[in-house]
Amino acid sequence: MRTVSSVNVNGVRAAAAKGLLRWLAGTSADVVCLQETRAQLDEIPPAILDGWHLAYAPCDSARGRNGVAVLTREPPDAVRVGIGAAEFDGSGRYLEVDLPGVTVASLYLPNGTVGTPRQEEKDRFLALFATYLAERREKAAAEDREVLVCGDWNIAPTEADIRNWRGNVKNSGFLPHEREWMAALFACGWVDVVRALHPGVDGPYSWWSYRGRAFDNDAGWRIDHHVGTPGLAALAVSAVVERAPSHGERWSDHAPVTVVYGS
Prior knowledge:
Deoxyribonuclease I, Chain A; 12 strands; globular; magnesium; Exodeoxyribonuclease III; hydrolase
């Protein structure tokens, strides 16, 4: 594994029709993590599989929601779905694959809404996921293996990760307890790979609302993250958000986040 990309496709069938297939055909990535596919396995456009091995976790409880995937150039050694929590393991939120020396995961963390059951669901996931990540890191260390969790984390960790942070301090994705949750992960040794490669700057943003002129004004959020164990993060040499040239050329409201890891 050398290059890893991650993108929330906002519906894999729609994205395939708008440009995802062209992007996949041209990418140099060895691994691609997809989120919010919104499809069952038999609904995945067959062309997506050209040149790729697919590991897939749809949402079993509701068609047309959630869904995560990992595409690899070589077949994975193992595939695991879920975080060991009955509430979430069939919801298309988390999938990981083992490759030589590294486990790569695709995450679609719940997107909450303050004051609603959706935020309560998100907070329950955060509590369970923190425990899972601690156990996963410990297990990986015992196996002399690195871990990389890519995906739509639906949290902007700091003020530098959202253009209009002052207007969003009471909104899900930028709530104090959510940012504290991510800070605690980083304090435990997990590394925000993209931020480590882009210190002291705003962004680079990876999501822009379709409303208004958010994309044209780069009024975005950095919520799509590569979060890795220290050994893997130390190998990262470059990180880029593959922002579309124009609003009309977008095939998702997110852009691929691509990191090159040395060997």
